[in-house]
Amino acid sequence: MCGWVGVFERGDFGRPPGASFPCEQCGARLRYRDEATAVVEHFGDGEATCLMELLERPDFAALTVLYVGVSGPLRGRLRALPNFFECTLEPPDNNSAKPKRRSYQDLQALGFAPASFDWIFSSHVMEHVPDPDRAFAEAHRVLRPGGALVFSVPMVPSGDTVVRGEVSDGAVVHHLDPKYHRSPQGRSLVFNDFGEDVADRLHEHGFEASVRRPTGPLMTYSNAIVFAARR
Ligand SMILES: [Zn+2]
User: Fold this and answer.
1) Cα of 103 to ligand 1 centre, how many Å?
2) Nearest-CA neighbor of 1 among 47, 43, 54, 42?
3) Which range scores top for mean pLDDT: 164-168, 180-184, 193-197, 218-222?
């Protein structure tokens, strides 16, 4: 994230590993650093070493980004960009003031014109989308040619995607015991446990996809997998 070099200590053992190992300089925890690494690898042409360095490049800083969600350390770094947009996934409370450049979106039916963005980022959101193929198709539609969809999901140790639930006629149908993750809205149902086969599904939607498993000494602790897909 910030390029700091040193010893990363796990810290509070009550947290999952991905939410541990904070950076001593910027505080970013393992999962977010893995995501930042994928962004740097995708956009950095092998030259940038960290997100802060990438952000100093005028060509990268000028890109139009859609950040899915309204929190996280990556957002903290990106939100100052001139062409930064973000979206919430829950319908807004009518009484709350809507910040500029923030909108409510259904990832399966985005309210944007085709070719609106250079990149879309989400962190541990896709597993909560009932029909991820619709979300991938929508991402492809609103990205410009050459644009990128970068997203992380919890890693399944082996095997292909397991569909835990679906929405049929407006009702949730569970195929497995419901699993929830904590979310800003309280809790969110996990519809899919994703495997690396997601790269093939992205390919079917017209993306050139790569799987970015975390590397480095802490990789065995990471619980995230990042996909970077070029339109
Ligand atoms: Zn840092």
Assistant:
1) 29
2) 54
3) 164-168
Q: What is the pLDDT of residues 110-145, one digit of tens each?
A: 999 999 999 999 999 999 999 999 999 999 999 999
The domain of 57 spans 17-158+195-230
Quote the number of domains for the chain: 1
- Residue 129 inside a domain? The answer is yes
pTM here is 0.91
- Ligand 1 centroid distance, CA of 84 (Å): 22
CA of 87 to the centre of ligand 1 (A): 25
Say if 89 falls within a structural domain.
yes
Q: How far is the CA of 50 from the centre of ligand 1 (A)?
A: 9
**23 Cα–ligand 1 center, Å:** 5
Residue 143 in domain: yes
* Residue linked to tokens 């991938």: 136
pLDDT score at 95: 66
**C-beta of residue 229 within 8 angstroms of C-beta of residue 196:** no
Report the separation in Å between the CA atom of 27 and the middle of ligand 1, taken as the mean of its atom positions: 6
Any bridge partners for residue 85, and if so which?
A: 66
Query: Helix H segments across 7-106?
Result: 30-43, 51-55, 58-61, 73-78
Token pair for 140: 């492809």
CA 28 to centroid of ligand 1, rounded, Å: 6
C-alpha 201 to ligand 1 mean position (Å): 33
